[in-house]
Amino acid sequence: MKVNDIHEKLMAEFGDAVGPLTEPKIDPFAVVKGDRIVDISRFLKTTLGIELDHCNVISGVDWPKRNVIEVVYHLFSYRHRHGIVLKVEADRAKPVVPSVEGVWKTANWMERECYDLLGVEFTGHPDLRRILLPDDWEGYPLRKDYQEHGGYHGISNERENPLVELRRLDEKRKAERPPAAPAPQAAPPAPSTPVAPATPAKA
Amino acid sequence: MERLILRRVGKPEDEMLINFGPQHPSTHGVLNFLVETDGEVMKRAVPEIGYLHRALEKIGEAVSYPGFMPYTDRIDYVAAMFANEGYAIAVEKLLKLEVPPRAQWLRAISCELCRIASHLVAVGAMASDIGASTPLVHALRERETLNDLIEALCGARLTYNYHRIGGVAYDMPTGWRDRVLKYLDHFDTYIQEFDRLISFNAIYVKRLANVAVISKAAAIDYGLVGPNLRGSGMDWDVRRDAPYGAYPSFNFEVPVGRGFQGTIGDAYDRYFVRMLEMAQSSRITRQALETMPEGETMAKVPRKIKPEAGEALSRVESARGEMAYYVISDGTDKAYRVRARTGSFTAMSIIEDISPGLMVADLIALIASFDVVAPEIDR
Amino acid sequence: MPVNYSPPPKSTPKVIVAVTLAAAAGIPFLFLGLVLLLTPVLKPATIDGLLSNAGIDPSWRTPAYVAALFVLALLMMNYGAIFSGVITWWERRVAGRIQSRIGPNRAGFGGFFIFIADAVKMLLKEDLVPADADALLFRAAPYFVVTGFALTFVVLPFGHSLVVTDLNVGVFYVTSVTALVVVGILISGWASNSKWALFGGVRAAAQVISYEIPAGVSIFVPIAMAGTLSMQGIIRAQGGLPWEWFVFRNPAALIAFFVLFTSQLAEANRTPFDLPEAESELVAGYLSEYSGFRFALFFLVEWGNIWVLSAIVTTLFLGGWQIPFVSAEYIDGLRGAGVLPSLAWWGWNAVSMAVFTAKTIALCNLVIWLRWTLPRVRVDQMMGLCWKYLVPAAFACFVFTLFWELAVSVAPRIELVSGVGFTVIAVVLAVLFARRVHQNIQAVQGEKIDLSNW
């Protein structure tokens, strides 16, 4: 079954909860209404002939310009070898999306990751807590406007520009190095004004 | 600070809560399992991940498209070739780029060699976790030779950075083909030696057969991929069923768990599927070397890679199963979003649900049979 | 700044080779020689004789006995410790060979002095006691373990007359003092106040106590065949030739031999029964919190126990020190009437010691070989093996042996028939095995078998 056919079936079942399929530039997708995502998922998984049993990946994407956070579901069927990409848009200020954990178990951790890194709240998720970051981490790093805060429990995540440090080391080494052996033909006085002979002094 | 997880696990008087990690000999990296045990039997093992989280997806948004390629190596440093390949394919999809055939063949060869190397670590480490230390050393010895071959190809032994957007970095050096063929001749007999060494050892079979059985339905539901999925009896391989690159031209079999020594989907099936896959990888490499086309190894790629706005998903069959890259472009020279879906992450998610009733030693067998690599879980 | 390691020498300097070879030959010979010389000389009867010969007042007898005991105790402790060290070296070389790597090769020729280097390293390390540990018990546990190990040397018969004391309950003495080791391990597991250590300690207790039963029952078989509990008595009831050994003289004894060997492996916490310290499961089990010399003591016992278990199995089933074609009574007769025995007696004693040591080393090799080949069993499988298979098998062997001995008293010929039959089978199996090994090596290496990288 082609993507268009799956999409048509979805349209027929859920009407205006399912948006139009984008033009197939690379991977077409359809935006669906967030509050119907669980029904749509269950429909896609259980309907004979569609059976999208493999929830490949659930990812979150932050779009500050459109003021939405997208949750993208890449679904696939092992039996029929077809798939569809669904997107749910959530308000950026308070992103809430129903959890599809009850449909695909693998959504459990993927939604947790999405919550962890983008702050999308999945209602109905049995165990929604941070997964990659520590429980007391502040902020959602994958949001576009995320600002690193100075550190975590006293562990600084800021450091000087390494190039500055390297230059300082360089100068220190130069200062420690004994002055280049005076050229024999050079005049003995005036050591403070290196005449810069043909040999490069600062190799 | 009361940790959420501790509240959740609880701590009745007659049970022991063990922190299985983050430093532990058999967690294959930095992982932590909160194990609730009643004596030797586990009530539950809750994985705690994130110790190796390096925000690679965030980095992907900050560097240019080719600049992210070395970072992909770090997603899975045991089988870095696939992480390279997946990302390259995703960006090529965005660019609508055709990769020259020779480059595709080289990709297949490098990936299959890398798969053998990765599976050698997997089966060796598994034997070591079960208590036999010799197979690991033998497997690592073979992997050294493979690393030498890959080093001759791309100059690196671990983080290859070999695949490029539009092709591969280097053509194969002169004489390399014969070296690989000679090694594969040795390797095909070596697999039998390894089988004799450990695969059919009675204690080993007893430790793995019928342990941590995952049904086909559960494996699909939890999104297990690759050898873990095939070990559960699901006949699916991205290389064959959703082909990419040069794979449609090769003739190979996909080993599937059949309950080799016990139930379908037990730890032994996951182990033995890997053993069989190594032989198939060797077969694919031979075919690729024989049918290698002439030509360029790089497509014409603009100096500054700026795909038009859009999004693409690439799926490759990594050593740890299907690896998917979801790349969104907004028309600039940096990706808007890079998402890597890895096999280890989903494999970890099933552990909490199948751990009750297993013994502590079985947890080791379970982790080892999933062949999880901590950086791939955490990214 | 790159660190410049001095390049390894192309070949080992001759001095180091000489010193190592001297030590490798000298250390065992020194200790075996001391055992050979001192154990007969320091017997009370000999001391009495020497004192009266020298005309010393008999009131010096007691101090002389005490001094003799101290000398023997020192000798046995060092014998156990040094041989355990040599076995660690041997194990690591064998492991290297099995795993196609080199193994220790720096300290001395072939790395022979690695055990001394290890001991020095361990001595210099900080002796840590965890803050929440039970400090007293934590410190005491290694001594329990070492005591249990060292006491076994009292009754081990090294040769014809070379035994510290031939207790008339020797076998039971051994099984009871080795149980001290598990007390130490349990204490260490509990006192460490670590969950891994506790796991290891409890596993060790469950394992060792369970396997005491098949071990104890299978020991009844040689006891029933010899009619004595004395270690020397059991050896004297056997002979020097394979069909005179207990292991072949009785079909049940053959099974009992395997039961005892397996149980002893489990009691010594060796692979495949190394669950108490299973490094991939329990980090290091009961050893987790130990460091420095206390850690070294545990390891000394672990490797020393290989020697002890091999020696016990050799004694009970493999004819001990019995020399082929030379009867024990013949050596007895050579002793002569003097205070000190005759030279020929010493010579045959040395030969008997060599026989005993060779058999023990062969068994040690087997133990090491098993460790680097087999995976570890799971705890329930370990228990199942013990209670479902080994204990019933041991009891069956014992009962069968009783009937067998009745049959032997009627028809003495059956012992010889069984002995010769099993010997022939064993030889055939050994030949087949050697041919198989040869084929396997040839498959990998071709015609020329290369042993140069030893």
Overview in brief:
The complex is a heterotrimer of chains A (203), B (379) and C (454). Chain B is α+β, with helices and mostly antiparallel strands and 379 residues long. Chain B is built from 15 helices and eight strands.
How much is the average pLDDT of chain A? 79
The helical percent of chain C reads 55-70%
What is the chains' assembly state?
A: heterotrimer
Q: Work out the helix count of chain C.
A: 16
What's the story with the biggest beta sheet of chain C? none
Topology-level CATH name of chain A: Beta Polymerase, domain 2
Strand proportion of chain C, as a percent range, falls in under 5%
Largest interface: A-B, 35 and 44 residues
Radius of gyration of chain C in whole Å, from Cα?
24 Å
H/E series of chain A: HEEHEEEEHEEEH
Classification by helices and strands of chain A: alpha/beta
Could you please describe the fold and organization of this structure?
Chain A is 24% helix and 22% strand. Chain A is of the alpha/beta class. Chain A has one domain (3-145): Beta Polymerase, domain 2 (2-Layer Sandwich), CATH 3.30.460.80. In chain A, the strands form 3 sheets. A 5-stranded mixed sheet of chain A has the order 1-2-5-4-3, covered by helices on one side. In chain A, strands 6-7 form a two-stranded parallel sheet. The longest helix of chain A is centred in the C-terminal third of the chain and has 15 residues, at 162-176. Chain A is elongated. Chain B has a domain at 66-305: Cytochrome-c3 Hydrogenase, chain B. Chain B has 15 helices and 8 strands. In chain B, the strands form 3 sheets. A 3-stranded antiparallel sheet of chain B has the order 1-2-3. The longest helix of chain B has 30 residues, at 101-130. In chain B, 58% of the residues are buried. With 454 residues, chain C is mainly alpha-helical. Chain C has 2 domains: 125-410, no CATH class; 415-454. Chain C contains 16 helices and no strands. In chain C, helix 4 crosses helix 12, helix 5 packs antiparallel against helix 6 and helix 7 runs parallel beside helix 15 (379-410). Classes of the chains: A alpha/beta (203), B alpha+beta (379), C mainly alpha (454). The interface between A and B is large, with 35 and 44 residues.
